[in-house]
Amino acid sequence: MSVLQNAVKTSDGVTLKGFLLSPVVEQCSGCERVRQFEEQEFCSSYADPGSKWVGGHCNFATHIKVQAAAAAARVNPLKASKRAAKGR
Ligand code: SF4
Fold it and tell me: What is the CA(83)–ligand 1 centre distance, in A?
C-alpha cells in the first residue's frame, strides 16, 4: 500500500492541504485509494471516507467497480443471446 503524500500530523490529527482527515472505514478495505500514514489508513481522494458510504457505496471505490464490471460481464452475454433469439 502506498504512503499518503503531503500529509502532516498536527495536534488536531492528520491533515492534508489544511483539511483534517478521518481514517478509512471498514467498507474501504480493498480499495486502491487507501493510503497509509502514521499507522493509520486514509483515503487519497476524500477527507472523510465514512461520509462516502452513507446511503450507498462510495462512487470512487475501485474494489466496487471491479465487482460491478464483473456483474455487467455476466449480464451482457444474456442480452446478446436474447437479441440473437429475436432475430430468428
Ligand atoms: S475512494 Fe471511497 S472506498 Fe476508496 S478509500 Fe476512498 S472513501 Fe474508501
Answer: 37
For the segment 67-76, what is each residue's pLDDT rounded down to a tens digit?
666 777 776 7
C-alpha cell at position 68: 460491478
pLDDT at 39 over 80: yes
Q: Is the CB of 61 under 6 A from ligand 1?
A: yes
Taken in order 58, 60, 66, 72, the sign of the CA dihedral is positive
**Atom of ligand 1 lying closest to residue 31 CA:** 4
Ligand 1 neighbour 43 (Cβ under 6 A): yes
Q: How far apart (Å, rounded) are the C-alpha atoms in residues 31 and 28? A: 6
List the chain domain ranges: 7-87
Look up the pTM and report it.
Answer: 0.75
Of all protein residues, whose CA lies closest to atom 8 belonging to ligand 1? Answer: 28
Phi, psi of 68 (to 5 degrees): -65, -40
